């Protein structure tokens, strides 16, 4: 086999006769941190649970380290899963919670002690080993849940929204902890979230799912800079990419809200009169003095966040857009500003949402 650590081939899932995962093919490299991201109900957890063996596949094949595991029990797959609800045993100490799975597997007592101590040291919970879960904070409980996965020495770690029960500040610090853990252990990790910041910051490879299909798979940079369609472009990035209704005029010219721009690359692709969308991220819109190459927009609303400012603007034809500004003179609601749309980072999408 190749270097694929986890490999999915035409993996499908139906509940009754309702298909929810439609034939997913995916190769995950050994040691990669892969994040499944997508809107609620798109099939992230279902896919992860099929890899874990907690959910049967309706069709297709899953292999881990070159071994077909499609019909194996979860305990025989070389995986360990961390859940959103920590699923700790409340009446057991942290040490016993960490040791429980190994005891069940009849691991030698000295080996259990060694692995528990190692995991506790990695997660900095050595001082909590005699407490019960009820005597821990949310972040500490989550560490214990992760520790329970570490002691099993799995080939692959599976995480399903492990941080979503934590408050905002703790999420950020646990996110960094998980990144550090990945760097230290070097295992393949598959992580489900609907938080795009977690996806962008943790992943070597992001898999964007929608309605049980892979919309795009690639590095965070590929997904952000080169989204293959309007869904991915709009899903990753906050505030989201602006999409402006545009009309092709022929001769490499197109119009947005009555204002004409140049896009020579269209010449062979579009008939005159064709409608499409121009996508520009808020940080790629510059406020300029010169109205010549720019479009006029009325500022409806300003959000001041300290380091950045978001300007919520309206074009002449009523289309909305958001501008992110890091510097520049103060801008007040009601002002008319000129926006340069000529960014070489603008993207074009046809009426089906595919990239032009
Ligand atoms: N046991 C089940 N029976 C029937 N339908 C189910 C079952 N479990 C999940 N589904 C459906 O399968 C689809 C995918 O669910 P899944 O839990 O994988 O979504 P998700 O991407 O993890 O969403 P979320 O972000 O809300 O956790 C949903 O439409 C859901 O309603
Ligand atoms: Mg889920």
Describe the model:
The protein has 356 residues and is an alpha+beta fold. It folds into two domains: 6-235, 3-Layer(aba) Sandwich (Rossmann fold); 242-349, Nucleic acid-binding proteins (OB fold (Dihydrolipoamide Acetyltransferase, E2P), Beta Barrel), CATH 2.40.50. Helices cover 24% and strands 34% of the residues. It is built from eight helices and 20 strands. The strands form four sheets. The chain has a six-stranded mixed sheet with strand order 6-7-8-3-9-10, with helices on both faces. A five-stranded antiparallel sheet has the order 13-12-11-14-20. A hairpin with a 4-residue loop joins strand 17 (309-315) and strand 18 (320-325). Residues 44-45 line the site of magnesium ion.
